[in-house]
Design a protein that fits this description.
The complex is a heterodimer of chains A (490) and B (198). By secondary structure, chain A is an alpha/beta fold. Chain A has 17 helices and 19 strands. A five-stranded parallel β-sheet of chain A has the order 5-4-3-6-7, sandwiched between helices. Chain A has a five-stranded parallel β-sheet with strand order 17-16-15-18-19, with helices on one face. Chain B is α/β, with parallel strands linked by helices. Classes of the chains: A alpha/beta (490), B alpha/beta (198). The complex binds iron/sulfur cluster. The site of iron/sulfur cluster (SF4) has 13 residues of chain A, from loops. Chain B: This is 3-isopropylmalate dehydratase small subunit.
Chain lengths: 490, 198
């Protein structure tokens, strides 16, 4: 190599050229390194956006108060009320004392520490993971944390987003950074074309069924492949949202035109020169050719069918056309025991066709599936139909804005004429911290993300499904795919 | 967080092993919104018994808890440490701690020292001979002393250093504050800001 042929500028230019190909996750990580940890110590990572809600923040603020510390960057912090908020009668005082205390505490803390808060009744109120993207605060290449495991949702934009515990919430409030050890990376490649009626929710349920609820432990999952590229932002959020159910810290999708179109023009999206600079940078984020992942998984999108869970963890799922599995078919001893327990709790018999299972309730909502596109999907099936008599149907928008948008499109009419309850925004029956709960023994088809024992109310039984399956189920009263409706019509 | 060099106070011979975090603080107390004021919650079920050791007059105002093996197992709740601290404990000595509990303790300024089972037995016997006597936990020398009995305890160097310096996680990070500030000056203007509200 001749010295003469090396231009003077090379060293500076070199500083921007990675020595080795990197993944999307590594690029975002590297761009937020405040200090590199030495001798096995964690790196110090800068946090671009901190989302706060009423359940995991009170003690964090109390810790700051005790130590006499301020919030370092109120301008990178935003709070909403969501987990506890009622979805009817929102103008009345909250009946449950714990819920009320948590909400009142958040209001006091936001006031005292100068944090922007969107309270119940505010147009920007809603589930924290719906509000961030909606305001244009969630964008590619940033780090996002929140004291909630489903923070992984924001990874759909090509952000590094993960849930943290209360002491970490305090840490971020005080320092805007977190000491973290790098995550491993896993590529989840979904190639092919989804058949009509098969959605993002079915992809992620199939992924979790394949790798298991612990399969993603310690990893950031990067979803790639033609089927992911073809998804809307809402679909990508649904997938990233449930990364945590595979045990992963985060899920990510490289940003592309779909991402930029979604972000552009939102209240906090970059504008003018900032926008151009941002897009130029975002275009460099995709995983480099030849970058190595620590693990890889392949899913054939052409093969996928509408999916449903039969058990009490999100990995216990099958295609809707299949039957309740026989626990004795599991070779792994622990899985077999888990399946036996799950069937007992779910009151299901091995061999029963999934479609014969009758439900008492349908919940359309949660940070997994409560955005406008989800509501449109649900409405497209139930429009002009009547719900099955014995089924209670609840539709809960993810945010006050989604509610308004849906009403502007007349979706609320579609839902109420169908016989569904149309509620105000919040987490609602996703976790049953507010009065929206299942009664003991009740069975629910739910678009949420967790089917744990008692998650939607003590003794309640949850089947996780997509909005389309939820809609078809609400019509037929048994677990159903949208395909069944077409067959029924023939 | 206060710097710790020595802790001196009433020592409790806590003849129990496998004390899990549910026993240290039951789940019903997790609903609270503060990080302090958990003294009433500590060992809540056991304290209903008037003969429970912490209800005895000799042990009022105790600072050093000397427990059996496997202290702090079970759920990872940080409240367990808060409850011990709020009650007045500054050090727990045991032959074995659950990892997460020990990690949480180090971060919250509660000293956890490991001594072997025979030594714990000797400490118990010494204190029971003279209930209400003080123990001195010397973090610099890494010893526990009750009366004429002095024994060494183990603690990892990193946690020991943090306790000596009085550094919680945040304090530790803020030692790097200049680097955080410097990083912030390079933060591009397109990155999100929640304020002013747009
Ligand atoms: S909707 Fe459910 S999963 Fe999402 S933030 Fe709320 S409680 Fe958590």
């Amino acid at each position: 190599m001749s010295i003469v042929s090396q231009p003077e500028t090379t060293p500076a230019a070199d500083a921007h050229i990675p020595e080795r190909p990197r993944t999307l996750a590594e690029k975002v990580w590297d761009a937020h390194l405040v200090a590199k940890g030495e001798n096995g110590e964690p790196d110090l990572i800068y946090i671009d956006l901190h989302l706060v809600h009423e359940v995991t923040s009170p003690q964090a603020f109390d810790g700051l108060r005790q130590a006499g510390r301020p919030v370092r960057r109120p301008d990178l912090t935003i709070a909403t009320e969501d987990h506890n908020t009622p979805t009817i009668g929102i103008d009345r005082p909250i009946a449950d004392l714990t819920s009320r205390t948590q909400i009142e505490t958040l209001r006091r803390n936001a006031e005292e520490f100068g944090i922007r808060l969107h309270s119940l009744g505010d147009i920007e109120q809603g589930i924290v993971h719906v509000v961030g993207p909606q305001l244009g605060l969630t964008m590619p290449g940033i780090t996002v944390v929140c004291g909630d495991s489903h923070t992984s949702t924001h990874g759909a934009f090509g952000a590094m987003a993960f849930g943290i515990g209360t002491s970490e919430v305090e840490h971020v409030l005080a320092t805007q950074t977190l000491p973290l050890k790098p995550f491993k990376t896993m590529a989840i490649t979904v190639e092919g074309e989804l058949r009509p009626g098969v959605t993002a929710k079915d992809i992620i349920l199939a992924v979790i069924a394949k790798i298991g609820t612990g399969g993603g432990q310690g990893y950031v999952l990067e979803y790639r492949g033609s089927a992911i590229r073809a998804l809307s932002m809402e679909g990508r959020m649904t997938i990233c949202n449930m990364s945590i159910e595979a045990g992963a810290r985060a899920g990510m999708v490289a940003p592309d035109e779909t991402t930029y179109t979604y972000v552009k023009g939102r209240p906090h999206a970059p504008e003018g020169e900032d926008w151009d600079a941002a897009v130029a940078y975002w275009n460099t984020l995709a995983t480099d050719e030849g970058a190595a992942f620590d693990a890889e998984v392949f899913i054939d999108a052409n093969e996928l069918e509408p999916f449903v869970t039969w058990g009490t963890n999100p990995g216990q799922g099958v295609s809707l056309s299949q039957t309740v599995p026989d626990p004795s078919a599991f070779s792994d001893h622990n899985e077999r025991a888990a399946a036996e327990r799950a069937l007992e709790y779910m009151d299901l018999e091995a061999g029963t066709p999934m479609k014969d299972i009758k439900v008492d309730a349908v919940f359309m909502g949660s940070c997994t599936n409560s955005r406008i596109e989800d509501l449109r999907a649900f409405a497209s099936i139930v429009k002009g139909q009547k719900k099955a008599d014995h089924v209670r149907v609840m539709v809960v928008p993810g945010s006050a804005r989604v509610r308004i948008e849906a009403e502007a499109e007349g979706l609320d009419k579609v839902f109420t004429e169908f016989g569904a309850e149309w509620r105000f925004a919040g987490c609602s029956m996703c976790l049953g911290m507010n009065p929206d709960q299942l009664a003991p023994g009740e069975r629910c088809a739910s678009t949420s993300n967790r089917n744990f024992e008692g998650r939607q109310g003590k003794g309640g039984r949850t089947h996780l499904v997509s909005p389309l399956v939820a809609a078809a189920t609400a019509i037929r009263g048994t677990l159903s795919s949208p395909w069944d409706l077409i067959e029924g019509a023939n | 967080m206060e710097k710790i060099t020595t802790i001196e106070g009433v020592a409790v011979p806590f003849r129990r092993s496998n004390v899990d975090t549910d026993q240290i603080i039951p789940a019903v107390f997790l609903k609270r919104v503060t990080k302090t004021g958990f003294d009433d919650a500590l060992f809540h079920a056991w304290r209903q018994d008037p003969d429970f050791i912490l209800n005895r007059r000799e042990y009022q105002g105790a600072k050093v808890l000397i427990a059996g093996p496997d202290f702090g197992t079970g759920s990872s709740r940080e409240h367990a440490v808060w409850a011990l601290r709020d009650f007045g404990f500054r050090a727990v000595i045991s032959p074995r701690f659950a990892d997460i509990f020990r990690g949480n303790s180090g971060k919250q300024g509660l000293l956890t020292g490991v001594v072997d089972e025979q030594t714990v037995e000797r400490l118990w016997e010494r204190i029971e001979a003279e209930p209400g006597m003080n123990a001195t936990v010397d973090l610099v020398a890494q010893t526990v002393t009750v009366g004429d009995l002095t024994v060494p305890f183990e603690i990892d160097d990193y946690t020991r250093w943090r306790l000596l310096e009085g550094l919680d996680d945040i304090g530790l990070t803020l030692r790097d504050e200049a680097r955080i500030t410097e990083f912030e000056t390079t933060r591009e203007s397109w990155r999100p800001r929640t304020l002013p509200i747009r």
